[in-house]
Amino acid sequence: MLESDELASCSPQVLPVAVGDQVSILLPVLLFYCLPPFRPNKQRAPFKTKLPPQAWLDPLVEKYWLDGENDVKIAALITLDIEEHPRLDPKKFTIGDSSVKRARDRLGLQGTRKQVKEGVLDNIPEMIKNICVSFPNMGARHMVAFLRIRHKLRVPEAALLKILGEIEPEAVAARKHRSTFKRGIFYSASGFEITPDPAELSSCPFSLRHLAGVHVTCTSFLLPRRWRASPVPPSSHTFNGIPLLSFSDTGKGNNGIANCHSSIRQQLDPTLRGTLQHKWFYEKMNIKSEIGWAQVRQGFSPGFEDIILQGQVLGLIDFDQATPIEIFLFRWLAIPWLQRELDEWRSLFNATKRRASKHKILPQGIPDQIRSHPRRFNLDNYMVSVPPELFDEMEAIWAPPDHAVFNLTPPKFTELVTEFYKQLGQPIVGAKSLWIVYAQLLQKFEQEISLIPLDGEPKIDTSFVDEHLYTDDEEDKGEAVLAAEFTDDEEETG
């Protein structure tokens, strides 16, 4: 600081220069703190956006999370759903990844880091051993989806590969060298343009038939079924529609579906009367169904066939010389359980992204998303919408539900076994409890039938034992009765 005498002796130019330097330094600071920030070409929104209704939002967050998407992708997919929704205005309803995270926390859907922090993933090796009992051929990629869908656990594929390498190194090595398919070409215009009818395979004892249709474009399974065929087109009630065309292997066993599908098309479009909306694929031409069957046989069947055959190993049943009660009891327990497992396996398969292949021109992504939103993958949807009343009418004609061929067991037996099952406390039937429950119910039947009163009549009505048991050939004939058979001329025109 200059004293007054020194100021007087200074040159008249010194003071103004010193003050000017201070002003030039302080002026930008004052402008920065005093003036509002400059935002060029940015307008305020006319109103504040909000989240979609929670009842609509939460199921979508859970669905996409189970598909394996991260928060950013979930927000992007839900934004597309908002734009496609007829009652939600995209200008009023928006969502970001932070909102998705809060929704996940509300639903209890934790990420990998949080699960590791809370020790949720410590039991993964034991869970993998239990999974391998039912699915011995399951690889790491499908196991990631299995843990995510059934147990809501997000485990990295690399971590699972490491655990599988320690638990079953021989099985991991065998999966790396699976036999390859002979590549073929299948042409389809787009989604639901043509769909194969349920292919059929008899596996396991007592002719447990396994039916499955495959979506051609997105390679997803459409409602696979255990037990007997129904001429109603596959997935009709689920998607409220049918494809333009159906196709199947040759043979009278598929006439029912061909006739039913063509009848529905003709009811909706009278110009199609007299035509067959079905294609017949001869030997080795039904590529999609053959591939689908190979995947079912490799991924689903082996473990469950081993579980079923344990009954014979334990001496609980002789599949070659079983009594009617043993046959009915096995069907009553095993088929509903297998159907539940098959539905879960289908959900797992359809929610797993396929490996990229340079040989395919199919859209890449999760099959369920491709089927549900074909436009997002540059595909068209050729599905023909069908009112539920028409489905019910066609089902009454071609597949009446009260026909004996669709009965799992005789009605009298069903009443008895249901009563005995309630007396046992309705135990859950699963891979580990199937034969335990079977033995308990069989013991109930043996006890009740052996209690013969003085008049010589058994305590329970056992007339169901004399009811006819369908063999494979007779089941085919019974199903053929439901469907009008084609003449040779009609088959040629198809």
Give a summary of the structure in a few sentences:
By secondary structure, the protein is mainly alpha-helical.
* Terminal residue distance: 108 Å
Global geometry: globular
What class do helices, strands and sheet pairing give? mainly alpha
Count of beta strands? 8
Which secondary structure elements does this structure contain, and how are they paired or packed?
Elements: H1 4-9, H2 14-34, H3 54-66, H4 71-84, H5 97-107, H6 112-117, H7 124-134, H8 140-150, H9 157-167, H10 169-175, E1 194-196, E2 199-203, E3 208-214, E4 221-226, H11 236-239, E5 241-242, E6 245-249, H12 255-268, E7 278-281, H13 287-299, H14 301-313, H15 324-350, H16 367-372, E8 384-385, H17 388-398, H18 411-423, H19 434-450, H20 472-482, H21 488-493
Parallel strand pairs: 1-6, 6-7
Antiparallel strand pairs: 2-3, 3-4, 5-8
Helix pairs in contact: 3-4, 3-5, 4-5, 8-9, 8-15, 12-17, 15-19
